[in-house]
Sequence to fold (262 residues):
Amino acid sequence: MKIGSASAVLAAAGAVFEKEKMPMPTTVTAFDNLNAVKEGKYALPALPYDYSALEPFYSEQTLRLHHDKHHAAYVNGFNTALEKLQAARKEGNFLDIKSLSKACAFHGSGHVLHTLFWHSMKPGGHSGMPDDLAMALNNSFDSVDAAKAQFAAAAKDVEASGWGVLAYEPLAGKLLILQAEKHQDLAIWGVLPLLVCDVWEHAYYLQYQNRRADWVDAFMKLANWEFAAQRLSMINHNFSGQWKLNNSNDAPRPPSGLKKRS
Fold:
């Protein structure tokens, strides 16, 4: 599992800590308050808006099917894979480790990305690009418009089923735009997704049929840049407790205009 792997693995560890009554760290993460875990198990979060709220760009029928059926299946698949892995550990029988590891990565990454996907769209579309996110996009992609164009192009051209992903890469402290095939392939370890676009056919086929490009164009009109900015701010505030966005010329500072907190 690669896309969002660090966060997904930490969340998986959370389920184990809960079951074994071990103390969990109290560090706030970029996945808090998304209601994707309940009582130590992964859970289907409620949508942050009504089923009809994204009309006409995303139909109520498509949203109901996508959230209630497809996302729920990833949640159930993730929990089932973890339960089977727990049983394998107790029995000391790892004959199915390959298939169970794949199931954990596939369903776990699907749950993480879908949880973010619902928040990556906003009824009525975005009201403007937040200043901190605009600065980060300018630093990482030369301009906001170039970042938007690259994101849309990446989503439209994902091989088969997958995602377009705007992510924070902590090694260099910069933003990247990635393609993810399926949910977990062709990504980079440790990145934290900020905004994601689902281009699996189940995400759009009822409304857009095989016109993926039209769906991505519609998504761009719904893109919730405020949510991406909030996640970036949380990440920069909490990542090692040391870095935050800054637009000054203070030195020294890490890449992409991130400044060490005083």
